[in-house]
Amino acid sequence: MPRPARAYSFTDTHLMRGVFYKIALLFAATALAVSCKHDNEVTLTQTGSMSYQGQTYALRTFRLAIDTVADGLYISDIQFAPSILSITDGRISGNGPLLSLRAHLDSAGLRFTDYLIDDSGEANTLLADSSAVTMYPDGTGDTVVNPISGGELSLTESALGYNASFRFLTASGDSITGRYNGPLTRSIGIDGDSVGHIVVDTIRTSLQPSKMWAWGRLFGDAYYYEIELLSSDFRYRDDGSPLRGLMFTVGLHTSDSIRPADGAYPISESPVASTAFYGHREKNTTWGTYWQLFENGTARRRANVTSDTVRISWNGNICAMQINLTDQLNNVIYGAYKSVTEIINPYGE
Questions:
Q1: What are 179-232's pLDDT values in tens digits?
Q2: Across residues 38-50, what is the average pLDDT?
Q3: What is the DSSP string of 19-66?
Q4: pLDDT 10s digits, 275-287
Q5: How many CA atoms lie within 13 A of 347 on its CB side?
Q6: DSSP code of 193?
Q7: What Cα–Cα distance (Å) separates residue 191 from each residue in 63, 66, 111, 209?
Q8: Residue 134: CB partners within 8 Å, gap ≥ 6?
Q9: Are 96 and 57 in contact (CB under 8 A)?
Q10: Backbone angles phi and psi of 20, in degrees to 5
Q11: Distance between CA 313 and CA 333 in Å, rounded?
Q12: Dihedral angle sign, alpha carbons of residues 23, 25, 31, 33
């Protein structure tokens, strides 16, 4: 029986993506076995506060919004918002101060380091002329923008994801300070690199680097893995749920406990080694090999794969796949994928 994940193991809402729901189902299935807590167990809770213009606010949101890539740098906004101010997919509601720091980053994430106000434009710096505290009013007052003139943000690792502390001075002489311990929400508005392609019926799209999930002996004696092949233009909502694009999931059974072994994987309804699991519903969710086309947060089109073969090979941590499959609608599916592919334990260990 699979072990439930620790709730504090996942620090990025887009890291877990479609596996959140599957883990919840597995947790429910095993809840009886782990219902008794030990006296020394500790529950970790997101915490944070921010002080500005004589008021202290509880911090709820730590968000990274990536807008574009220029000269090899990710142009992004690092945002902190109190619990009375809501940011959902870029839309702001409520009232209170929003700290927004314009950053030039060397990756599509935040490192555990210090970020300083520095208008040099170099990697991992914050831009004074584009960073500000914006006060959203309670009622009919005016929204006031107070530019940042100096300061720093310090990030270190924690069990919840990030320990953040910041102190900035505004152009008007006000200071804004705060601390936060919790996860990071990422909103990525750029296309992923093209590392392959896939054709499903009339849909033809490039594929971006993907992740593989190592589920262990989930359905039988063989080890079960799932790789989510995503179109390069795939987008997520802030909560990690799909927004738009093609998601093609391939479920693989293998005798290898480290990663799927090289070879051909024909579609099978039985969970035996060296086969690709057929797409099907089990315990109120979909497993195996299937595709979904999302539009405005809804899977407008989807089908389970029922026959033919996928081939896989490895060169170090580079995974190569050749796809020749057929779904339940008799759509012929073909394509190729080749990229560095991270294998993740969804149980958080």
A1: 999 988 877 777 778 999 999 999 999 999 999 999 999 999 999 999 999 998
A2: 67
A3: HHHHHHHHHHHHGGGG-SPPTT------EEEEEETTEEEEEEEEEEEE
A4: 999 999 987 889 9
A5: 14
A6: P
A7: 19, 11, 21, 11
A8: 97, 98, 100, 143, 144, 145, 146
A9: yes
A10: -50, -50
A11: 19
A12: negative
Query: Hey, what are 216's tokens?
Result: 């262990």
CA dist 103 and 67 (Å) reads: 10
Structure tokens at 244: 């738009």
Stated as kind and residue range, the H or E segment containing 210 is: none
Structure tokens at 132: 């500000």
Q: Summarize the chain as % helix, strand, coil (round to 5).
A: 5, 60, 35
Tokens of 6: 């620790």
| Alpha helix stretches (DSSP H) within the chain | 13-16, 19-30
Largest CA distance in the chain: 68
N residues, the chain: 349
How many whole angstroms from its chain centre is CA 89?
Answer: 14
Name the one residue in this structure whose structure tokens are 């990025």: 12
Q: Which two tokens stand for residue 341?
A: 């592919």
**Token pair belonging to 348:** 């958080």
Contacts for 195 with CB less than 8 Å, ≥ 6 apart: 207, 208, 209, 337, 338, 339
For residues 100 and 134, the answer to whether their CB atoms sit within 8 Å is yes
- And the tokens for 56? 């202290």
pLDDT tens for residues 86-107?
877 667 888 899 999 999 998 8
Structure tokens at 256: 């290898």
Direct distance between the N- and C-terminal alpha carbons of the chain, in angstroms, rounded to an integer: 16
Closest residue by Cα to residue 213 from 16, 21, 3: 16
Report the half-sphere exposure of 167 (CA within 13 A, side-chain side): 0
